[in-house]
Design goal:
Layout: E1 2-4, E2 11-18, E3 23-32, E4 35-45, H1 52-70, E5 74-78, H2 86-105, E6 110-113, H3 115-123, H4 130-141, H5 147-166, H6 177-183
Parallel strand pairs: 2-5, 5-6
Antiparallel strand pairs: 1-4, 2-3, 3-4
């Protein structure tokens, strides 16, 4: 379950989440000495709960438990796909908000990625199917699963891997407006 990558010697844990109100996928990866190791992945099945508030509570509890167990340094969340059904978008946005609230509650920085960005980062094709993403992750991360059962989990792992591939190293005091202004005086008027 590990893969050599050329990102330098670093150690950190990333929680990836594919939010949903029917099924939510999650995945936790650990990067250490250029290797990605899968710590855990799975799905939270929420269809059995009729009440929307109970679903959101279960999402919050699951993400909080994962944070407590794995102590991630960062979280990456897939952004909702903008579809035609407004009610579905509202429910998905709430699920994403609950995931973000659980991470922010523990001061964990969050990054958001569009589904197209995640697919392109992992497979090279922004229009790849869930099955193609799962197959590429199995190759990259050297783990076996039945993709039909855990496609939302492999999507969550893909979000975490996408974040790792796209993360820019921090400069100066970090990724803040203060460091941006310091490093880009010629681009900021009045300095």
């Amino acid at each position: 379950m590990e893969q050599m990558l050329n990102k330098g010697n670093e150690s950190r844990i990333i929680l990836g989440v594919d939010p949903g109100t029917t099924v939510m996928g999650y995945g936790v990866i650990h990067i250490e000495n250029k290797k990605i190791v899968v710590l855990q992945y799975g799905v939270l099945k929420l269809a059995k709960y009729a009440d929307q508030q109970l679903k959101l509570k279960k999402i919050f509890e699951t993400i909080s438990r994962l944070i407590q167990e794995f102590l991630p340094d960062e979280a990456a969340v897939e952004m909702p796909f903008f579809g035609v059904n407004v009610q579905s978008m509202l429910k998905l946005g709430r699920a994403q908000g609950v995931v973000m609230a659980a991470a922010l509650n523990k001061n964990i920085p969050i990054a958001e990625y569009l589904p197209l960005e995640v697919k392109k980062s992992v497979t090279g094709n922004g229009k790849a199917s869930k099955e193609q993403v799962a197959a590429m992750l199995q190759t990259l991360l050297k783990f076996n699963t039945e993709p039909e059962d855990l496609l939302d989990a492999t999507d969550a792992l893909a979000v975490a891997v996408c974040h790792y591939f796209n993360r820019k190293p921090k400069k100066g005091k970090g990724n803040s407006w203060e460091s941006f202004v310091t490093e880009n005086k010629s681009r900021v008027k009045g300095l």
